[in-house]
Amino acid sequence: MKLKDLAGILPVEGIVPADMEVSGVSSDSRQVRPGDLFVAVAGSKADGASFAADAQKRGAAAIVAARGAALGALSIPVIATDEPRRALALLAARFFSRQPETMVAVTGTSGKTSVAAFTRQIWEHAGLASASIGTTGVVAPGRNDYGSLTTPDPVALHRLLTELAEAGVTHAAMEASSHGLDQSRLDGVRLVAGGFTNLGRDHMDYHPTVEDYHRAKLRLFDTLLPKGAPAVIFADDRWSEPTIAAARAAGLKVLTVGRQGDFLRLKRVEHERFRQRAEIEADGVIHEIDLPLAGDFQIYNALVAAGLAIATGTPSSAALGALEKLGGAPGRLELVGTTGNGAPVYVDYAHKPDALENVLASVRPFTTGRVIVVFGCGGDRDRGKRPIMGEIATRLADVAIVTDDNPRSEVPEEIRSEILAAAPGAIEIGDRRMAIAEAIAMLHAGDTLIVAGKGHEEGQTVGSQTFPFSDHEEVRRALKEHAA
Ligand SMILES: CC(=O)N[C@H]1[C@@H](OP(=O)(O)OP(=O)(O)OC[C@H]2O[C@@H](n3ccc(=O)[nH]c3=O)[C@H](O)[C@@H]2O)O[C@H](CO)[C@@H](O)[C@@H]1O[C@H](C)C(=O)N[C@@H](C)C(=O)N[C@H](CCC(=O)O)C(=O)O
Ligand SMILES: Nc1ncnc2c1ncn2[C@@H]1O[C@H](COP(=O)(O)OP(=O)(O)OP(=O)(O)O)[C@@H](O)[C@H]1O
Ligand SMILES: N[C@H](CCC[C@H](N)C(=O)O)C(=O)O
Ligand SMILES: [Mg+2]
């Protein structure tokens, strides 16, 4: 591609040779190949500008950087931009160029992974070649890659979207994290609809205030979606109203779902042990749905997913009918097994206050004995949530076991003691494997165990090392040993 072909994305002006060939784009100097454009972005740990010389050494054709960035002496052209991250995303979209035709994104504090997985499943039932992209990875026909970032960085994302489109995928649902939205990782994705689940405390280490966090989420609605696009918004959350108002102000077509929803109205829910029956009204017609998943919140997620599928062309009866066959996303209130006396053991990804509160409350209706929870808090992440989660666990569970969850560079005992400060009576077992085994050994008939915080994760990060670790495997092992 020639530099001049990028006009419209970047102001190609002045001394920049417009006829210059550029072969790719990268924001990481270590990955620059000869002929690439290097985009210098300011990050949380480093400033990409300081790697411009490194990028030049590796053969970069030109540098894209913020106006006035301190790049040092360079012999290759420099293109100035006001928003390097946005430029990176738009350039990545331009270089890779292909995307599934129908792309939707969902944002919110909790439920994004579930909604993306559910939307993909509904489309699949309608016979469409579909993908989901997010925390648990990429799922598409013939493909199931383990995930890392919730919203991949733009270059990885557009490489992936092109691969999916080339493989015939026409529909894709992706998660829009607040980091991803704030860092413009989704700019350049041709989205046709957006979804919102809820807003609670999260990432207070990154966003200065909850309002700032909400504003980051709103970028999906006020910046990324084209005018007139459907915005499917869960109506029963305390942040629904301002989200609806922002979506309306941005000229979107607001479709609300939930008990207070107009587009899909939840009329009634009846819990049965591991499943629930819901009455949902769509367009004046009542649909009786037997959802094979536990947890009220899964109904809310299912409503957002059905709303997105309907908004992108799936008939309501097919979308709502598909909910009867939904599989939960891995590690989201996932029933991993039961003890010999019938007590269920769930692995769940609740690692923030609202999620923990929800998950503990949602197993209570079918627990005749005790609710037992094993959980911890990650190191190098929002410290403020620790006592809040300690309080929630002791209030809503009968037995709370505080353990380690990716201590990263922090001292595990200190993380635990910050949780325990607000969790009187909680049991402390640092070793996560032992904590799970102890909890399973405690289970009587009628009890429910939730192992929270790691969900689908396959490792435990201590210091800078990640050891293989899976809550699923530990639960299975302990159940087997307990039965023996
Ligand atoms: C805080 C954060 O979001 N960081 C992300 C961000 O990195 P950064 O811009 O801060 O990077 P940096 O290390 O300061 O470096 C600045 C720039 O210099 C470049 N560099 C650096 C070194 C070098 O030798 N050469 C070079 O060019 C880097 O490539 C980067 O472009 O941009 C990178 C590329 O997109 C991400 O990989 C990185 O995610 C880190 C790994 C991360 O852990 N992110 C988490 C917090 C995250 O994004 N989570 C969200 C939400 C999860 C949820 O929903 O709960 C997610 O979407 O996953
Ligand atoms: N709608 C919801 N309301 C409240 N809690 C929820 C909801 N959906 C899921 N949860 C809780 O949050 C956990 C994570 O769910 P999910 O992975 O779907 O959300 P997410 O938004 O993708 O989270 P993350 O940002 O951590 O990737 C679940 O395991 C469950 O405990
Ligand atoms: N995307 C989230 C995942 C947290 C999962 C939890 N197990 C932890 O390590 O804190 C984060 O990076 O903040
Ligand atoms: Mg997620």
UniProtKB/TrEMBL annotation:
Chief site of localization: cytoplasm
Keywords: ATP-binding, Cell cycle, Cell division, Cell shape, Cell wall biogenesis/degradation, Cytoplasm, Ligase, Magnesium, Nucleotide-binding, Peptidoglycan synthesis
MF terms (GO), sorted A to Z: ATP binding; magnesium ion binding; UDP-N-acetylmuramoylalanyl-D-glutamate-2,6-diaminopimelate ligase activity
Similarity field: Belongs to the MurCDEF family. MurE subfamily.
Protein name listed in UniProt: UDP-N-acetylmuramoyl-L-alanyl-D-glutamate--2,6-diaminopimelate ligase
GO biological process: cell division; cell wall organization; peptidoglycan biosynthetic process; regulation of cell shape
The keyword Transport is annotated on this UniProt entry: no
Residue positions of motif Meso-diaminopimelate recognition motif: 405-408
Boundaries of every Mur ligase C-terminal domain copy: 331-455
Cofactor field: Mg(2+)
Modified residues (N6-carboxylysine): K217
Pathway(s) annotated for this protein in UniProt: Cell wall biogenesis; peptidoglycan biosynthesis
Encoding gene, per UniProt annotation: murE
Signal peptide (residue range): none
